[in-house]
Amino acid sequence: MSVKAVEMTRKIRDRHYKETKDLSAEEQKALIKEKSERLQARYKATKDKSAPK
After folding, report:
1. Domain boundaries, the chain
2. Neighbours of 28 (CB within 10 A)
């Protein structure tokens, strides 16, 4: 199995561009903050599930 890193990176960059091209700087900051908070919550939920009881 080979990983097509350049192709994968291009797709990610294109998706991010489409998501943010019409946003102001403040809207972009809010979007990044929202995504960060969701990721941190997901990480915490996963960490809590795997913690020994």
Report:
1. 24-53
2. 13
